[in-house]
Amino acid sequence: MPKPLEPASHGWLSPDWPAPAAVRACATTRAGGVSAVPYATLNLGAHVGDEPRHVAENRRRLRAALCLPGEPLWLDQVHGTRVVDAAAQPPGCVADASFTRQRGVVCAVLTADCLPVLLCDVRGTVVAAVHAGWRGLLAGVIENTVQALQCPGAELLAWLGPAIGPDVFEVGAEVRAAFVAEDAGAAAAFRPSPAGRWLADIYQLARRRLARMQLSAVYGGDECSVSGATRFYSYRRDGVTGRMASLIWLDSRGE
Q1: How far is CA 19 from its chain centroid?
Q2: Domain segments of the chain: what residues?
Q3: Crossing angle between the packed helical segments 141-149 and 202-212, to the nearest 10 degrees
Q4: Which residue from 151, 160, 242, 157 is spatially nearest to 203, judged by alpha carbons?
Q5: DSSP conformational letter for 76
Q6: How far apart are CA 183 and CA 226, in angstroms?
Q7: What is the distance in angstroms between the CA of the first residue and the CA of the last residue of the chain?
Q8: What's the mean pLDDT when you consider all of the chain?
Q9: pLDDT digits (tens, 9 = 90+) for 104-149
């Protein structure tokens, strides 16, 4: 059986968290694919205007490099709160998170500034991937996913992947007001911007949501997709651009 490539070999990210051996996870960067500018090079999104043959080859390279047990469940992400069982849904189903208890099923989300959240339990029996833009975050996509795992929050681990950083995520007063109305403590995640708006810390907002679910073992959250132009895709920075993937699965080779 081929040995899976270490994510760092491509410049991809391997979550630094104490997950069980059976839990495999990776977040891609823009390196390692065949797409041309403005999607250069490892665009994994089929909905952004890239050549379909390039996306197909990039996904093939992803599967081969990580020795994935199957094609990831690619979701039709709509900034909502629907969570699906990845083993029971067809490709392209509308959802913003998926989970699985079945080995060999790969959960994945695509991002280019929105926050990817990977989850697993301490026993290595269930995993999940969450697409958490500010709309989904506010509406409860993280809470819905944690509930779907049917594990106490204290028995879960979370990893926050590359997203728009707190120094550049400028939002209007209505966004801040919506978060603060739902959680007064969320005010700490906003500070005034030079333009008279607000800079939001999506990582801090996600940590607050996780903490409310009794999930305190949170890792990652130290990358910025906007400022890392050579490493990450960013919709806010570039407009037309590719998408990165954050993936997680249960692998029997880890037993």
Answers
A1: 17
A2: 19-163+224-254
A3: 40
A4: 160
A5: B
A6: 27
A7: 15
A8: 95
A9: 999 999 999 999 999 999 999 999 999 999 999 999 999 999 999 9
- Give the whole-angstrom CA distance, residue 219 versus residue 209: 14
Stated pTM of the model: 0.95
Closest alpha carbon to 226 in 113, 132, 110, 111: 113
In this prediction, residue 163 has a pLDDT band, given cuts at 50, 70 and 90, of very high
The yes-or-no verdict on residue 205 having pLDDT over 70 is yes
Could you report the per-residue pLDDT of 229-255, keeping only the tens digit for each? 999 999 999 999 999 999 999 997 644
φ, ψ for residue 9, nearest 5 deg: -65, -25
Query: Is 65 within 8 Å of 26 (Cβ atoms)?
Result: no
Of 109, 153, 152, 154, the residue nearest 128 (C-alpha): 109
Q: Which residues contact residue 161 at a Cβ distance below 8 angstroms, ignoring those fewer than 6 apart?
A: 13, 15, 27, 111, 115, 116, 117, 118, 220, 223, 246
pLDDT of residue 11: 85
The tokens 């992400």 sit on which residue? 77
| Centroid of chain to Cα 70 | 19
Query: Strand runs (DSSP E) across the chain, as ranges?
Result: 23-27, 83-85, 97-100, 106-111, 115-121, 127-132, 156-160, 170-171, 190-192, 198-200, 218-220, 244-250
Dmax (CA) for the chain in angstroms is: 57
19-163+224-254 fold: CNF1/YfiH-like putative cysteine hydrolases (3.60.140)
The answer to whether 129 touches 107, Cβ cutoff 8 Å, is yes
Beta strands in 112-242 (DSSP E): 115-121, 127-132, 156-160, 170-171, 190-192, 198-200, 218-220
What does the CA dihedral 76, 80, 83, 87 come to, rounded to 10 degrees? 0
